[in-house]
Sequence to fold (507 residues):
Amino acid sequence: MPVTIDGESLTIKKVVDVARGGEKVELSPGAEQRIIACRAMVERKIRQGEVMYGINTGIGEFSETRLSDSEVLSFQKYLIYNHSAGIGKPAPLEHVRAAMLGRANVHAKGRSAVRPEITQMLLAMLNNGVTPVVCEKGSVGACGDLAPMSMIALVVMGEGEAFFQGERLPGAEALKRAGLEPLTLHARDGLALINGSNLLTAIAALNIFDMNRWLKTAEIATAMSLEALYANLKPYDPRVHRERGFKGAARSAMAIRKCLEGSDLATGKTPQKVQDAYSMRSTPQVIGAAHDALAYAASQVEIELNGVGDNPLFLHEEDTVLTGANFQGTPVSLPMEMAGTAITMVSVLSERRLNRLLNPALSVGLPPFLAEKPGLFSGHMLSQYTAGMLIAEQRMLSAPAAVASIPAAADQEDFVSMGMNTSLKNCAILENARGVLGIELIAAAQALDFRSHAYGKGVNAAHAAVRNHVAHLGEDRPLYPDHNRMSEVVADGEILEAVEAVVGSLE
Fold:
C-alpha cells in the first residue's frame, strides 16, 4: 500500500519502507491543495514586487542584493549549480531516497512556496527508481543540507547524475529511461528543493531504526553470555526496575528475561554467585539508558520529518512571509550525538562480557579463550583484539560534532550544526557495533557448547541462528570469515527475528 505524503504522518518506519523497501509514495489531496495555495500567494507577491529572501534577493551574505525581474528565474538555476559543491563517494541509495521523501513531506506542509510539479517530480523519481548521485560530504547542517540536496535538484533539472536500474547515468538519461521529463526551475523552486536538513535527518531516521534493532540484539547476546556464565538472575527481576522507575531499564530487563525463560538459571540448578560483575548485572540499566536516549532521538527525528525547515516560511492563510532559521540541524544532531554515544557505550559492555567468557579467571570453568585444546589452540583470543580495535574507533567517533561549528559565508552563517558529521559518524559507529556484537555472539555460542544445563527458549533460538552461519571452533581456523559473516547477520536482524519468533517482541 503506498505511503501517503501529507506533511503530518511520516514516521521512521515509513522512511525505512520507502528508502529500503521501495514502497510507492503518493501526495495526499489536502497536501496538494496547500502547495497550490501557498504557491499562488508567492506568485502574487512576486508580481507586486515584494522583496523576499532567496526569490528576488541573493542568499547568505548576498541577502541584501536585489535581483532584477530578468534575473529571478536564472538565479534558481545558478543557486543549484553553486551549491552542488560536495565531495566524496556517492551516498548510499537509501540515504538519498529517504532525503527525497523527507523533502517532499516538507513541501506537503504548504509552507515552501514550491510549485506542485517539483514535489510530484520527487515522488515520481522515488516511484520509478531514479536516485540522484549525491556526494556524501559537504553539508554543515545549517541553511539545510545544501550541497547534497542540490545534487538531487540537478537531476530534477535533467542535469547531474543518477542511478537507474543499477547503472550510473547522466541525469537526463536516467529520467528518460524512467519516462520522466526534466523540469525548469521557476522562482523559489531551487531553494525549496534544498533548504532543509533533510539528508542528515534521513540518515538519522535509518540509523535510529537500526540502532533499536541492534540494542535488542545486544539483549539477546547478553542473555546468551549470562547463560554461559551461570548468572544470578535477580538483577533482572521487574521489581528491581520498578523501584527506580526508568522505562528503558524495565524494558531491557523484560527482554533479557524473555530470552532466558525456561533456563535452569531460574531454578537454582546451576552454581551462582551472590552478585555478578557489573558487566552482567547492570546490563538493564546500561542498555535501558540507551533505549531512553534513542526514544528521545526518535521523537526529535519524527518531529523534524513532519516539520518545515525552510527559510523563509510562507504562511498563505495570513498572507505573510517570515524569515527564520528552521533549517538549523541542531535539534536532530544533538540527540543523535547521544544516540551514537549510547551505541558505543553498549558496545563497551559487550566487550566486557566477551572478556569474561574468554578469561579463565572469570569464566566459571570455561576453557581458556574457549579453545578445545588450550595452548595448542588459541581459540577466540584474537577475537577480543578485534573487538577492542573496533571500540577504540567508536570512542573516537563518539567525540561530538555538535560543538564543532566552523563559520561560513563571511560570518553571515556563523554557527552551524555539523549535523551531517553526526549522521555519518553514527553510520560508522553502527558498523563497528555490529562487529563487536557479532564477536560476542560467536563467543557466547562457543561457550554454550561447553555447558550442559537447559537454556532459555530465546537463548536456544539465538544459538541455533548463530550456528546457521558459524560452526563451533574445534581446531583453530582463520576467524575473519566468521567475524564478517556474523556482523552481516547482526545487520540483517536474522538473530533478532529468530528469537522474537519464539519469545515474542522484545520491545
About this structure: The mean pLDDT is 94. The longest strand covers residues 87-90. The chain has two domains: 3-196, 207-302+330-503.
